[in-house]
Amino acid sequence: MKRRVPELTDHLGYWLRQVSNHVSHGFARKLADKDVTVAEWGLMRVMFARKATAPSLLAAEMGLTRGAVTKLADRLIAKGYVVRDADPDDGRAQTLRLTSRGEAFVPDLAALADRNERECFAHLSAADRQGLKRILAATVAHLGLTKTPLD
Question: Does the predicted model carry a pTM greater than 0.70?
Answer without folding.
Answer: yes
